[in-house]
DNA sequence: ACTGGCACTCGCCACCGTTGAGTGCCAAGC
DNA sequence: GCTTGGCACTCAACGGTGGCGAGTGCCAGT
């Protein structure tokens, strides 16, 4: 078992290493932190910590650096979440207020988070799957061509072209529009398929094929667009990574471009409740390109339920308390903004 | 004046340097290219080229590398546009077909262009300013709350919430919707303000404030959203830049995140006609961060007029003929895709 | 006008000894 | 039984040195 002091040593190592980016030795440790013991003692503790796999030395006779396992212990037991300063909180509010539409909210959030943490920010668009239908609109563009517009309670709008098998008159169209809305407005996406199931039957025989196409397009939109979008920013911060560049950031940039990977990453981070913060460190990330990075993510939403995730991607050697504080604070404010609009 | 052979030497230098990324000397040149003269002669030519500012040496007794001015001459007079192979053209078509909506088209284009050129791709969304109105829709979300949906002929959809000063009945709403559409559908954005100018007057006095709000919101949307969006991709290709990393790619990544800068960059590239290809080399780019990069851009559009730009950003040391070929080919295919939809 | 020859420059690399931070171990002390 | 000071050892980093070779500029000869 690790004594209290050994944990303290680990904490000190993590803090120093995060600050200096250089392996930290026993002497420097005792000087910077009042551990109350001599370097020799610290050396013994370090030997134990190394044996247990929490720290490692890059090469013989260099200082120690934390391993992924060491960071994990640090995050789980040694570090809290550093709350933001009043000034920072004010900055967030100023930055986020004044967003005009959903794109703008997400865009501002990404920039804000990147700036605040000095890392790469990832913000998922509010997901459709948990939201409800605010309105469905059908527009006739040409005799046999419709446009379906779906509006969600998070302010998102999706549109689809529909080519009908046969021309579709204005009256049945208005009829369909009205009935469709009366059935699905305010309902959750997941419930929609069931709610429109028998809608086609109440139409004239000649119109049924067209109605069927409309309905299936609607369902398709609901399913397809549950596939989520996201926005990233602050990639320039990657250049602060290390000194051995191309090898380090190449795979990260590649991973960041594969939005599918990122979405999976955010999606998997669901432990400890929907709104809980998740920290995945180094090799805990399934994607190989992100094995040298940590991902801090948290759910956010307009209500008490999370509708999407946001987070940052940075080197495993990051300021976890600060980053977690910033991520959590931003998520809260974004939630507020969404709830207001 | 530069003799024919000197130009040939410059061309050879550019080609070799682009291939090897290393300064090229007189001996290597005569070996790889059949210039028909000895290294000594080439050395004399090089001395002249250097005096004229087309090439430079990184340090005494190293080979020469082209300067921005040298690349400029190469692009203007020595290099053509390399057409794509049949296989590449087929790949483009396969890749671009099957896009379901505008976002998808743009997204695929970015990935395609990045892959094809192995550089950073930038694609501007089809601009609203030159497009026409396909449909305007007004939805009643709550008694005094409307949603305005604007659909363009390029498939873009913009929406705005409107809070009315007073409740607005279904009938006047339908009326407004019908009249609005009859006036503006098929018209260019620029003409809309004039077309709806006196529309409010034909409504009942009590409804006029609401109508006025709707109209002003519409106009606002037209103006605001003429501010264009773009998508970028292939940033991982930046890691192939040079060996002296952080300094090189940092400013580029920063510039790429400032979409405003990129839009200006694309916007300025309008010489030689709307659809003409523009190449801006090194310091020709106003933005400092892009002083070590070249930008190859071209307009694309569904008709014979360009509605937006796309291009790539890469090191000044790039394969200009190949890049230009790829950019032009992609622009053409995207134009076709847009015209079909 | 082109060419071969020649002396010169200078970045690159491999080698080498020095330096210093950091370690592991051990015997003595609290 | 921890803790501590001492000590020998290791090894990355640094700076200097010398040889190598690619590349240049100049000049005299054809």
From TrEMBL, chains A, B:
Organism domain of life: Bacteria
Repressor recorded as keyword: yes
Any coiled-coil regions, as ranges: none
Purpose of the protein: Negative regulator of class I heat shock genes (grpE-dnaK-dnaJ and groELS operons). Prevents heat-shock induction of these operons.
Family: Belongs to the HrcA family.
HAMAP family: HrcA
Protein name: Heat-inducible transcription repressor HrcA
Species per Swiss-Prot/TrEMBL record: Streptomyces yaizuensis
């Amino acid at each position: 078992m690790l004594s209290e002091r050994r944990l303290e040593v680990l904490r000190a190592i993590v803090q120093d290493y995060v600050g200096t980016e250089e392996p930290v030795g026993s002497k420097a440790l005792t000087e910077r932190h009042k551990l109350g013991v001599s370097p020799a003692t610290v050396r013994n503790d370090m030997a134990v910590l190394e044996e247990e796999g929490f720290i490692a030395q890059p090469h013989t006779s260099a200082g120690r650096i934390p391993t992924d396992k060491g960071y994990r212990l640090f995050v789980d037991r040694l570090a809290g979440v550093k709350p933001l300063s009043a000034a920072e909180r004010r900055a967030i509010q100023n930055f986020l207020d004044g967003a005009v539409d959903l794109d703008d909210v997400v865009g501002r959030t990404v920039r804000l988070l990147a700036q605040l943490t000095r890392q790469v920010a990832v913000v998922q668009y509010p997901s459709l799957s948990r939201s409800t239908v605010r309105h469905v609109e059908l527009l006739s563009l040409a005799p046999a061509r419709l446009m379906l517009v779906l509006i969600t309670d998070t302010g998102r709008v999706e549109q689809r072209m529909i080519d009908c098998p046969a021309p579709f008159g204005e009256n049945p169209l208005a009829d369909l529009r009205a009935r469709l809305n009366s059935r699905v407005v305010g309902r959750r996406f997941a419930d929609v398929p069931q709610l429109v199931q028998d809608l086609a039957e109440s139409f004239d025989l000649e119109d049924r094929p067209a109605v069927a196409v409309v309905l299936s397009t609607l369902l398709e939109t609901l399913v397809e667009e549950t596939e989520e979008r996201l926005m990233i920013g602050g990639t320039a911060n990657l250049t602060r990574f290390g000194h051995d560049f191309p090898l380090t950031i190449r795979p990260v940039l590649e991973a960041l471009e594969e939005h599918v990977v990122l979405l999976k990453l955010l999606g998997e981070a669901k432990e400890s409740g929907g709104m809980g913060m998740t920290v995945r460190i180094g090799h805990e990330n399934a994607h190989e390109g992100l094995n040298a990075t940590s991902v801090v993510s948290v759910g956010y939403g307009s209500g008490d339920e999370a509708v999407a995730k946001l987070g940052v991607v940075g080197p495993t050697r990051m300021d976890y308390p600060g980053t977690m504080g910033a991520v959590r604070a931003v998520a809260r404010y974004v939630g507020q903004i969404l709830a207001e609009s």
